[in-house]
């Protein structure tokens, strides 16, 4: 599950526990519910969201073992993650992922769906594992990859060689904004960055609309963002 703390104008969402934080329907609903709680806070448009985790994993992707028990759950998890990514794009505040452990497959997509990615260098990697485990990548995953990884060579390595990208390599590839010595330093750096952003920025509603336009291709694949810039993200509190 996840927890939420508020420190001044910083909302800190944490995936709790020492497990792999597999993105099953229960966890995805918990994260979306927490984001909707943040969105409804009166200070949200002047705040920053930081997402982090306990343990050695940021998220190890979809709960594949659960999906094996019922194939329809694969479709459900994918739909719920698409809605969560749309939430992160539309929320009226900057977002920071403090990646303190492995972020694999859908977990990597979750991390990259934030505006900033900070990562510990002593443990963990970003890893699009689908090639290694022979799973087809959804088209909307590719939209996120294109939006978040600028270099064609880096996209090739991430998607077509299933590279396990460390924090330092991620900085070189332009995927990670900065790397830190351990988990605590990563979260502390995310807090400092969040405080700096709060001090220098204006209204979050304009920020959110600009991000929706910037990431239009992702929204087209997630919630059907139309050519006029209209989308269904205002209603993301509803359950799928």
TrEMBL record:
Family matches, as CDD domains: crotonase-like
InterPro entries: ClpP/crotonase-like_dom_sf, Enoyl-CoA_hydra/iso
One Pfam family recorded for the sequence: ECH_1
Parts of the chain that traverse the membrane: none
Protein name, UniProt field: Enoyl-CoA delta isomerase 1, peroxisomal-like isoform X1
Species this chain originates from: Camelina sativa (False flax)
């Amino acid at each position: 599950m996840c927890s939420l703390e508020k420190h001044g104008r910083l909302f800190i969402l944490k995936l709790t526990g020492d497990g792999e934080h597999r993105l099953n329907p229960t966890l995805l609903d918990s994260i979306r519910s927490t984001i909707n709680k943040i969105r409804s806070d009166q200070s949200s448009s002047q705040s920053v969201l930081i997402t982090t985790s306990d343990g050695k994993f940021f998220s190890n992707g979809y709960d594949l073992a659960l999906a094996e028990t019922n194939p329809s759950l694969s479709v459900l998890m994918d739909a719920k993650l698409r809605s969560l990514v749309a939430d992160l794009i539309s929320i009226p505040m900057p977002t920071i992922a403090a990646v303190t452990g492995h972020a694999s497959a859908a977990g990597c997509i979750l991390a990259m769906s934030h505006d900033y990615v900070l990562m510990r260098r002593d443990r963990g990697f970003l890893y699009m594992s689908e090639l290694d485990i022979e799973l087809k990548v959804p088209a909307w995953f590719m939209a996120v990859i294109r939006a978040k990884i600028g270099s064609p060579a880096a996209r090739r390595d991430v998607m077509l060689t299933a590279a396990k990208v460390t924090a330092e390599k991620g900085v070189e590839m332009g995927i990670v904004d900065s790397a830190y010595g351990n988990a605590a330093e990563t979260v502390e750096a995310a807090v400092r960055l969040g405080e700096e952003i709060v001090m220098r920025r204006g209204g979050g509603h304009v920020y959110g609309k600009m991000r929706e336009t910037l990431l239009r291709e992702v929204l087209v694949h997630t919630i059907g963002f139309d050519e006029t810039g209209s989308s269904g993200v205002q209603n993301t509190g509803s359950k799928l």
